[in-house]
Specification:
Radius of gyration: 27 Å
Shape: elongated
Strand content: 15-25%
Distance between the termini: 18 Å
Order of helices and strands: HEEHHHEEHEEHEEHEEHHHHH
Mean pLDDT: 87
Helix content: 40-55%
Structural class: alpha+beta
Number of strands: 10
Length: about 375
């Protein structure tokens, strides 16, 4: 098992990669749009080290939980007001603010704001594409029983399963037989799971003795599955081999990756709505949502898995980051886009105080949501 320090470090590295890629989208788009980028930072202040190049400060900061791009004029005319306080003339102020974010056309500001989201989608597609070109690890039979659930078909049958039993087949179908009835472990589990309510006979090797173990897989509700119950009620392990990759060429890998990214993205808003409703008591709380603590815990577990699993996991996080950021909720990118579009409809800027209040309110709501989910994360920790 990965230690606590290793888990935290792994989570921080993954988080920094995802956020830096996101902020890199804003940075590149702003530069191409002629917007003055004052700082590109990795982590959050206080600043540890920095260098200025071509008018932009590149910094490494002490709190390694993300990154940021600071653009001239993204806080309205605060910089212009400071220049006026220093006695600069209006022509001088206009020249200095020529590259300001808030002086650019509406459409260009929207492009800059959504560029981070697009970069996270691109990262997800790249990671998934690489994953689809990797050999797929899979379990092959026979299967060794590692645990038996109490009050399950495996425990209550005429011949109960025991830890250490080797399952070599089912219903006269054998692993490694000449006609290859069964090869992968999931061939057997799929066969058994499809026969809920029907008796099947597991062929077992128990300390060198052949046994036939009749069991009747049970029908399970979704709630029972979420509790970890299985149709037969035993855990197992078996050898792992690398099978062929899912994509035979790069074009197919990219197509599969794009399809996977799109399918995941459309599911996230509904899942988020269910999570919020569950936290507010408006719907059953499944407890499936993960906050920073939960994601860190899962990151530590995933990094002990094969490379293909790690790629899919980081890709999943990148899609989540993209979708959550595009939601029209301040201070997320989607919320900032909504404010810019509102200004376009009103044909005048929001008062700075009102805009600041909108972002502060949104920030407080987000922090509250993170805290509520983190409480669930803590409750899941071992020993809680």
């Amino acid at each position: 098992m990965m230690g606590v320090i290793g888990t935290v470090l792994a989570f921080v590295v993954v988080l920094v990669i995802l956020v830096v890629v996101h902020e890199l989208g804003h940075f590149v788009a702003a530069k191409l749009a002629g917007i003055t980028v004052q700082e590109f930072g990795i982590g959050f202040p206080p600043r540890v080290a920095s260098v200025t190049w071509h008018g932009t400060r590149y910094s490494i900061n002490a709190v390694p939980l993300g990154g940021f791009v600071k653009m001239l004029g993204e806080d309205g005319d605060i910089e212009a007001d400071r220049m006026r306080q220093r006695g600069l003339s209006e022509p001088a102020i206009e020249r200095a603010m020529a590259g300001a974010f808030n002086r650019k056309p509406i459409w260009l500001r929207v492009v800059v704001l959504v560029a981070g989201v697009l970069m996270n989608f691109v990262l997800a597609v790249v990671l998934y594409a690489v994953a689809f070109t990797q050999p797929v690890p899979d379990h092959v039979g026979p299967m060794t029983v590692t645990a038996v659930q109490p009050a399950s078909p495996a425990a209550n049958g005429r011949v109960p399963l025991r830890v250490g039993d080797r399952i070599v087949g089912v219903d006269a179908k054998r692993f490694g037989s000449a006609d290859a009835d069964l090869h992968l472990a999931r061939d057997l589990t799929t066969y058994v799971n499809a026969r809920a309510g029907q008796q099947v006979v597991l062929h077992v090797d128990r300390a060198g003795h052949a046994l036939d173990v009749p069991v009747t897989p049970r029908k399970l509700t979704e709630a029972e599955r979420e509790q970890g119950k299985g149709p037969v009620g035993f855990s197992w392990d078996s050898p792992v081999v690398n099978g062929p990759s899912e994509a035979s060429n790069p074009a197919q890998a990219v197509a599969l990756a794009a399809d996977t990214t799109a399918r995941i993205a459309v599911q996230i808003p509904g899942a988020l709505a269910n999570t919020v409703a569950g936290l507010l008591g408006l719907a059953p709380n499944t407890g499936e949502a993960r906050g920073p603590i939960g994601i860190a815990q899962v990151t530590g577990e995933v990094l002990q898995q094969p490379l293909v699993t790690q790629l899919f996991f980081v890709g999943l996080l990148s899609v989540n980051l993209a979708v959550l950021n595009v939601l029209p909720f301040p201070p997320l990118d989607g919320g900032r886009v909504a404010v810019v579009l509102l200004e376009a409809v009103r044909r005048r800027k929001l008062p700075a105080e009102r805009e600041a209040l909108i972002y502060l309110t949104g920030f407080l709501v987000l922090i509250t949501l993170v805290i509520l989910i983190s409480i669930q994360d803590i409750a899941r920790l071992p020993g809680s």
